[in-house]
User: Fold Luciferase-like domain-containing protein from Capronia epimyces CBS 606.96.
Amino acid sequence: MAQQNTSSAGRLRPNNRKPLILNAAVMNTPSHVSPGLWRHPTNHSAEYTNLKYWTDLAQRLDDANFHTLFITDSLGSFDVYKGPHNAGPAIESGAQFPINDPLLLVPSMAAATTNLVFGVTASVTYDHPYSLARRFSTLDHLTNGRVAWNVVTSFLTSAARNHGLEEQIEHDERYRRADEFLDVTYKLWEGSWRDDAVTKNIQSGQYANSDLVQEIHHRGKYFKVPGPHVCEPSPQRTPFIFQAGSSKAGKDFAAKHAEAVFVGSQLPELVRPTVDAIKSTAQEKYGRDPNHIKVVVSISVIVAETDEAATRKRDELLSYGNIEGALTLFGGWTGIDMSKYSDDEDFRFVNDYAIRSVLDKWSSTVPGSENLPWSKKRIAEYIMLGGYGAKVTGSPETVVNELERWIEIGGVDGFNFGSITVPGTFDDLIKFVLPVLKERGWLRADIEKDKEGATAREVFLGTPRLTEDHPGHRYTWARDGDRPVFPSNTE
Ligand SMILES: Cc1cc2nc3c(=O)[nH]c(=O)nc-3n(C[C@H](O)[C@H](O)[C@H](O)COP(=O)(O)O)c2cc1C
Assistant:
């Protein structure tokens, strides 16, 4: 069934439109958010181990003027379903398992493209700021500034156990640690080298001026990093920062650090309070300009010539879905093991209040499904095509009308399009949706030759370096600028 058409086009004047942010979301794995679909004839995602799969995809998106190839990541298996600690269903279905490292894909894709930004997920919970800062500086050099970091605190217990912990670090404690983690990386990226420290003086033989490189002397609760940073200044220094926290602590962290936040919800009406809360916290608590935080929502699109053709396409795609894989993903995201329930049980009425509450919170917001039973099969079918979040199926006009509702009601600046097939989903967006967005004035203009190859931060905020209101900026050691002072660290 096509989604309800509640076009807001009449109320939005084209000359007031800011170009939308268009991101393509993928993962370095056979099945990101569409378990079973790796078998679909138009889906090449099972070729994720082949570099050409990635460079072809990046070129396609670059040619179509997408802003970002966004690569999500996790550091363990989804092992709640039929568990605990059972990776079997994930292994069998290929649901986000096996999963290769996202960072290593980027240099080849950068070499094959001109403008595309690479948003790379890296966890702060299982890494160290000194080594992570080095990897991102290297990528920022090799991409000439076209890299963004999606900062995550991770949520899989399997990741914790495989990193030597009995259980996950407590949720809010992960964010406190993350806060210090970012502080250390800002010191390394922004304050350890002055912009012009590298002299490459052929006459004297001096590579870099050691007076313009300093240690950071970080001694905090979680990390001790004397410095200096091992990498010379890269185009952005600090990579452009994405973040996707939804809890209270997560939103506070986003308000402080993020330059773009991901939000996820079924309905634009529900996402608006989150967007407003992050922006007002950014302004009131952290003194940041709310316009310096872009908001991007995750959405899955199935589009064809007409609403009916799109519905047929959805049914055809669904026939490739893997229910076990979907329940595996659901288990990892919610902590609920669906194997304990019979196939036809309606979860709106189960006795376990905690489970009912998690499910109600989610299912009650899925448009048009109030009166249907939420059985295991129904949940799996919902997840199979694009995961847990917002979806739209329909003609190009139906889809764009829905996207406009997200912009107007949800207050978002753009979309993270989930993939059902790769490159099929993105080819459909390029063929059907982008022309209508263009017609309605939502696309950025073709990039002029002299603006090609802009850094990620230039693309999103119009400047290559951290804005003055960002917390990392206080450490910035600019050419002719004062040597930054690192506040005394607490232990
Ligand atoms: C669009 C989007 C992308 C995300 N990507 C990842 C990811 O790649 N890896 C990950 O561990 N978590 C990812 N998350 C989950 C978030 O990092 C975070 O754990 C989740 O939103 C819950 O937030 P909270 O910890 O503040 O409750 C993503 C969330 C969203 C909305």
Q: What stands out?
A: The pocket of flavin mononucleotide is lined by residues 72-74, 121, 152-155, 244-247, 250, 262, 264, 298, 416 (CB under 6 Å). The CA atoms of residues 126 and 230 lie 20 Å apart.
